[in-house]
C-alpha cells in the first residue's frame, strides 16, 4: 500500500451538514455538538422536510436517523441516490444496529456510512472527517452495475458502487473497533468495581468479627455482676420485705426486675453473637418431645398464673424419640410461651399442641391475645424489631427472642410459621423434621 502522507484537515466552518432527526432533543444535541466544532448545521424533522430543504440548499453531508415518520432514513437515501443532482451527497445513518440486516438494507438504499447509537463526540467527528475526505478523494469515481449477493439465507441485489462499499466496510470496521474499545473500558471499570467491592467486603468481615468479639466480651463481663445483683435483690426482697416500707420494697422490686431484664438481654446478645459467628453448636441427643413439652409448660405455668392465664397442653400424636438439642428447644418454648403470656389478656387461654404431619412434627403455640397487624408480620423475626402491639401489663421485651428462635429452628433443619389476626390472637407453628434417634444412631 502506497502512503501518500497525511490528508489535510477539512475546514469545518466551510462545511454545511443537514441533520434529519424527528426527536427534537436528539437533533438539538447533535446540532450543538457539530456547531461547537465549527460546522454549519441545517435541521429537518423527517425525510420529506429534508428533501424540501435540499431544493434550496446543498450540504456537504447528511446525517439521518433511520426510524422517522413521513419518510424514514432508508427512503430518504433511496430518493437522494435517484436524484442526479443530489446523489453524490454522502449520507450517514444513525442506527442502533440491533439487526445485522440493517447493514445490508443501508447498502441497498444507498447509504454511504452509518454510526451506531449511542456514540461519543470523538467517534462521530472522526466518522464525519473520514467520510468528507473520502468523498474528496473519490469524486471522479463512476458508478457500476448491480450485483446479486446472498446474506443470511436471503438474496439481495445491490448497486455495485465501490466507493459506497468501501466506505460501508470501513465504517463497519471502525464501529466494531469503537464498540470493542467501549467494551474494554467497561470491563476495566467492572474489574475495578469488583476489586473495590472485594476490599469493602473484607473490611466488613473484619469489622463484623471485631463487633462479635467485643459484643461477646462485653456480654460476658456484664453477665456475672448482673446475675449477682439479680440474685441478691431477690434474696433481700424475700428476707427483708417485712422490715421495709412500701416505697423501699418497690425500689427493691425495681432493682430485681431491671437486673432480670438486663441479664436476659445480655444472654440473648451472647446467643446472637454465637449465631452470627457460626458458633451455634447443637448438642443433639435422643429427646422424648412430649415429655419435654410437658415439663417446660409446668415451669411456665407459674408465669401464666401471675396473669391468671390458663396454659393448656394437647398431644395429638406423641412421636418417638427425636434427635434434638433439648436446651435449645426449651429456649424456643420459653420465648414463644413467654411472648404469648406477655401479649395476652388476663383470664385468657394459651394452647400448646404437639402433632404430626407425615415426616414432620409440629409444635403450635396459640394465644387469644391482641394479634399482630399483617404489615408487621414480614419483619417479625428481625432483631430489635419493635411491634405496635404492646404487652398487656407492661412486660419488657428485648426484641431478640424471635430472631433467636428462628435461628435455632433453622439449625435443626426446620422452619417456623406465624398466623395472626388483630383482636383474635396469634399462632406460631414450629415444624421439625422427624430425625429419629434409632436412625441417627445407626448412621453413627
List the helices and strands and how they pair.
Blueprint: E1 16-20, H1 24-36, E2 40-44, H2 47-53, E3 61-65, H3 73-82, E4 91-95, H4 101-108, E5 113-116, H5 121-137, E6 146-151, E7 154-159, H6 162-240, H7 246-276, E8 285-287, H8 289-305, E9 310-315, E10 322-324, H9 326-342, E11 349-357, E12 360-366, H10 401-411, E13 415-421, E14 425-433, H11 437-443
Parallel strand pairs: 1-2, 1-3, 3-4, 4-5, 9-11
Antiparallel strand pairs: 6-7, 8-10, 11-12, 12-14, 13-14
Helix pairs in contact: 2-3, 5-6, 6-7, 7-10, 8-9, 9-10
Report on the structure:
The strands form 4 sheets. Strands 2-1-3-4-5 form a 5-stranded parallel β-sheet, with helices on both faces. A 5-stranded mixed β-sheet has the order 9-11-12-14-13. Residues 1-7 and 438-444 have low confidence and may be disordered. It is elongated, with a radius of gyration of 40 Å. 49% of the residues lie in helices and 18% in strands. The relative contact order is 0.06. Strand 13 (415-421) and strand 14 form a beta hairpin. It folds into 3 domains: 12-160, Rossmann fold (3-Layer(aba) Sandwich), CATH 3.40.50; 198-276; 285-443, Heat Shock Protein 90. With 444 residues, it is α/β, with parallel strands linked by helices.
Amino acid at each position: 500500500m502506497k502512503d501518500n502522507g497525511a490528508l489535510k484537515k477539512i475546514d469545518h466552518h466551510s462545511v454545511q451538514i443537514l441533520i434529519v432527526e424527528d426527536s427534537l432533543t436528539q437533533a438539538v444535541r447533535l446540532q450543538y455538538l457539530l456547531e461547537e466544532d465549527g460546522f454549519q448545521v441545517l435541521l429537518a424533522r423527517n425525510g420529506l422536510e429534508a428533501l424540501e430543504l435540499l431544493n434550496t440548499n446543498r450540504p456537504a453531508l447528511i446525517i439521518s436517523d433511520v426510524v422517522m415518520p413521513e419518510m424514514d432514513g432508508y427512503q430518504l437515501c433511496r430518493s437522494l441516490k435517484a436524484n442526479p443532482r443530489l446523489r453524490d451527497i454522502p449520507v450517514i445513518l444513525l442506527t442502533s444496529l440491533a439487526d445485522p440486516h440493517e447493514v445490508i438494507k443501508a447498502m441497498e438504499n444507498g447509504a454511504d456510512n452509518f454510526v451506531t447509537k449511542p456514540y461519543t463526540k470523538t467517534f462521530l467527528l472522526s466518522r464525519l472527517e473520514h467520510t468528507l475526505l473520502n468523498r474528496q478523494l473519490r469524486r471522479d469515481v463512476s458508478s457500476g452495475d448491480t450485483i446479486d449477493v446472498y446474506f443470511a439465507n436471503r438474496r439481495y441485489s445491490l448497486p455495485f458502487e465501490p466507493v459506497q462499499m468501501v466506505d460501508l466496510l470501513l465504517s463497519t470496521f471502525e464501529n466494531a473497533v469503537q464498540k470493542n474499545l467501549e467494551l474494554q473500558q467497561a470491563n476495566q471499570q467492572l474489574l475495578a468495581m469488583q476489586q473495590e467491592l472485594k476490599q469493602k467486603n473484607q473490611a466488613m468481615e473484619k469489622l463484623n468479627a471485631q463487633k462479635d468479639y467485643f459484643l461477646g466480651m462485653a456480654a460476658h463481663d456484664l453477665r456475672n455482676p448482673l446475675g449477682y445483683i439479680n440474685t441478691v435483690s431477690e434474696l433481700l426482697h424475700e428476707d427483708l420485705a417485712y422490715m421495709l416500707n412500701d416505697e423501699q420494697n418497690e425500689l427493691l422490686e425495681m432493682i430485681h426486675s431491671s437486673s432480670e431484664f438486663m441479664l436476659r438481654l445480655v444472654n440473648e446478645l451472647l446467643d446472637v453473637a454465637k449465631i452470627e459467628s457460626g458458633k451455634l453448636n447443637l448438642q443433639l441427643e435422643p429427646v422424648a418431645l412430649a415429655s419435654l413439652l410437658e415439663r417446660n409448660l409446668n415451669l411456665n405455668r407459674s408465669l401464666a398464673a401471675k396473669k391468671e392465664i390458663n396454659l393448656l397442653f394437647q398431644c395429638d400424636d406423641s412421636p418417638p424419640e427425636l434427635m434434638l438439642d433439648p436446651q435449645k428447644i426449651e429456649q424456643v418454648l420459653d420465648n414463644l410461651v413467654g411472648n404469648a403470656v406477655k401479649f395476652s389478656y388476663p383470664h385468657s387461654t394459651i394452647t400448646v399442641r404437639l402433632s404430626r404431619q407425615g415426616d414432620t412434627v409440629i409444635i403450635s403455640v396459640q394465644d387469644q391475645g391482641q394479634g399482630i397487624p399483617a404489615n408487621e408480620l414480614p419483619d417479625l423475626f428481625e432483631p430489635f424489631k419493635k411491634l405496635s402491639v404492646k404487652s398487656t401489663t407492661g412486660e419488657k421485651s428485648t426484641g431478640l427472642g424471635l430472631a433467636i428462635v428462628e435461628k435455632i429452628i433453622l439449625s435443626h433443619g426446620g422452619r417456623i410459621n406465624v398466623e395472626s389476626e388483630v383482636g383474635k390472637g396469634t399462632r406460631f407453628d414450629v415444624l421439625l423434621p422427624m430425625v429419629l434417634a434409632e436412625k441417627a444412631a445407626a448412621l453413627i
